[in-house]
């Protein structure tokens, strides 16, 4: 019996490379965030979407705590601030998108 991992056959290398290159046109990853944090000036806001309790235990320097939730997301969208990035806890995903004008 095949495991769930092997139910979908691997994609050919050229298709896989094109897929991930396309995703990077719309998303950022932890390497991008790390590189941005190393710059003398930041052009993005680093969001920590975990609970205030987890944020208080430790967070990346300069991170802003904005607990995950609909009202928090609406409040952030209304603020029309800079580009944001949200590193994620295991099992969660996030995307950094340019603000809408």
From TrEMBL:
Region described as Disordered: 61-101
Keyword Ribosomal protein: no
GO molecular function annotations of the record: thiosulfate-cyanide sulfurtransferase activity
Cross-referenced PROSITE patterns: RHODANESE_1 (PS00380), RHODANESE_3 (PS50206)
UniProtKB keywords: Pyruvate, Transferase
Top-rank taxon: Bacteria
Biased composition (Basic residues): 70-84
Domain Rhodanese: 40-69
InterPro entries: Rhodanese-like_dom, Rhodanese-like_dom_sf, Thiosulphate_STrfase_CS
Extent of Low complexity compositional bias: 85-101
The name this protein goes by in its record: 3-mercaptopyruvate sulfurtransferase SseA
């Amino acid at each position: 019996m095949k495991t769930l991992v092997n139910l979908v056959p691997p994609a050919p290398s050229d298709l896989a490379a094109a897929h991930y290159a396309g995703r990077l046109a719309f998303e950022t990853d932890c390497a991008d965030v790390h590189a941005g944090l190393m710059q003398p000036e930041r052009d993005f806001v680093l969001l920590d979407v975990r609970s205030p309790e987890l944020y208080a235990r430790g967070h990346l320097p300069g991170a802003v705590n904005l607990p995950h939730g609909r009202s928090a997301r609406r409040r952030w969208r209304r603020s029309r601030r800079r580009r944001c990035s949200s590193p994620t806890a295991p099992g969660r995903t996030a995307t950094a998108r340019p603000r809408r004008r």
